[in-house]
């Protein structure tokens, strides 16, 4: 039996941001048939209004034909149960699962559940993370809650809700702030009809419909390029009572680092670099994605996708897409040491910076890195 992996989208966003409203609208699109929704409820959050009645197996058929269930134990168990039922014909065959996290949740453990389980990793492919940010309360929420910043930081797409209720300058300054927290995410306005199925889904690397991979889009390189001249505190809020003395403590702890090297590297170099990076900075790595040109197989890119210390089993794309080759990694971190990470990368790819040991010395003794602060 050929099992095409089921696409998984994670829908996150703070309490009341508008996740369920967005999802209800999306589920009306026929393109989302054969989708199951998992609502990741925790005790303190009221049961979602979608769950009007409780079925014995916890799976509810919604009016539009989609399935809905809540996480009763571990998310991994709920995912495994859904896959099993889909494969054995107990429920309709699933093409997609949307996991709606609770507003208070850190999305990183949710991503770990999807990517980290060796069996699930073969059955599922993480399509993308969608984060809803409320235009009215978003800025205050980002300032008050670390989880809200982490939710925006790991997203592939950010959806602004309630923009029609916000002053235009509020939305503009929120957008400027989001582009610093997450320079590579595409930001879409739900009210302007920008947040439809085609914009929010299939943001993964490989699109099974077109059978092509779009590395630039996956890595958000166009977005990041557009934002690179933004200065952290210099967003346009003059004349609106903004003092420029923002206390964006949580924002400042998020960092998106892009590592580029234009020559192929050996597989063992890649392994050692990733091992060291994960063992020293793993706690601080929210998400890592990228492609690598490996000396041993230069016809295909090696795909790297990870969350914290966890790396999705390395995968190869069938061939290089158009455009530049080499290594392109995007790391999103929380309290990640940029200096250390860049030095480690330079040492391994053979471009040691001044006062930095080379890769061989580092693999013997990682503490040999100048300025080591892990
Ligand atoms: N005006 C306006 N209201 C919205 C919009 N999106 C959501 N809302 C309202 O905001 C409230 C919260 O929306 P939900 O979709 O329940 O938010 P949620 O993120 O699922 O909330 P939790 O599950 O509690 O975390 C509801 O009253 C919605 O009707 C929007 O774009 N514009």
UniProtKB/TrEMBL annotation:
InterPro entries associated with the record: CobW-likC_sf (IPR036627), CobW-like_C (IPR011629), CobW/HypB/UreG_nucleotide-bd (IPR003495), P-loop_NTPase (IPR027417), Zinc-reg_GTPase_activator (IPR051316)
Alphabetical keyword list: Chaperone, Hydrolase, Nucleotide-binding
Chain ranges of the CobW C-terminal domain: 254-349
Catalyzed chemical reaction(s): GTP + H2O = GDP + phosphate + H(+)
Keyword Chaperone: yes
Biased composition (Basic and acidic residues): 224-241
Regions crossing the membrane: none
UniProt region (Disordered), positions on chain: 224-249
Phosphoprotein listed as a keyword: no
Assigned protein family: Belongs to the SIMIBI class G3E GTPase family. ZNG1 subfamily.
Function statement: Zinc chaperone that directly transfers zinc cofactor to target proteins, thereby activating them. Zinc is transferred from the CXCC motif in the GTPase domain to the zinc binding site in target proteins in a process requiring GTP hydrolysis.
Protein name as annotated: GTP-binding protein
Native species: Aquamicrobium zhengzhouense
């Amino acid at each position: 039996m050929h099992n095409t992996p089921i696409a998984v989208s994670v829908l996150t966003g703070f309490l009341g941001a508008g996740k369920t409203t967005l999802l209800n609208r999306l589920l009306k699109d026929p393109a989302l048939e054969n989708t199951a929704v998992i609502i990741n409820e925790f005790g303190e959050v009221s049961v979602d209004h979608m769950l009007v009645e409780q079925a014995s197996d916890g799976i509810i058929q919604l009016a539009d034909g989609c399935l809905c269930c809540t996480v009763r134990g571990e998310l991994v168990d709920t995912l495994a149960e859904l896959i099993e039922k889909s494969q054995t014909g107990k429920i309709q065959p699933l093409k997609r699962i949307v996991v709606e996290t609770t507003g208070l949740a850190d999305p990183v453990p949710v991503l770990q559940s999807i990517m980290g389980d060796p069996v699930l990793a073969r059955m599922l492919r993480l399509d993308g993370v969608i984060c809803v940010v409320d235009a009215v309360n978003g800025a205050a929420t980002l300032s008050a809650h670390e989880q809200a910043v982490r939710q925006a930081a790991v997203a592939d797409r950010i959806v602004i809700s309630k923009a029609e209720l916000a002053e235009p300058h509020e939305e503009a300054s929120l957008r400027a702030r989001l582009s610093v927290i997450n320079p590579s995410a595409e930001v879409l306005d739900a009210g302007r009809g920008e947040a439809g199925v085609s914009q929010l889904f299939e943001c993964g690397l490989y699109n099974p419909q077109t059978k092509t991979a779009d590395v630039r889009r996956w890595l958000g390189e166009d977005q990041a390029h557009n934002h690179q001249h933004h200065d952290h505190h210099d967003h346009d809020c003059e004349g609106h009572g903004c003092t420029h003395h923002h206390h964006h403590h949580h924002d400042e702890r998020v960092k998106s680092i892009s590592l580029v090297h234009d020559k192929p590297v050996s597989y063992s170099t890649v392994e050692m670099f990733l091992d060291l990076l994960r063992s020293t900075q793993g706690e601080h790595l929210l998400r890592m994605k990228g492609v690598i040109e490996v000396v041993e197989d230069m016809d295909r890119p090696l795909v790297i996708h990870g969350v914290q210390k966890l790396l999705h089993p390395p995968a190869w794309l069938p061939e290089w897409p158009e455009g530049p080759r080499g290594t392109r990694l995007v790391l999103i971190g929380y309290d990640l040491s940029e200096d250390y990470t860049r030095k480690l990368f330079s040492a391994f790819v053979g471009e040691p910076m001044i006062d930095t040991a080379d890769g061989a010395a580092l693999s013997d003794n990682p503490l040999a890195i100048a300025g080591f602060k892990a």
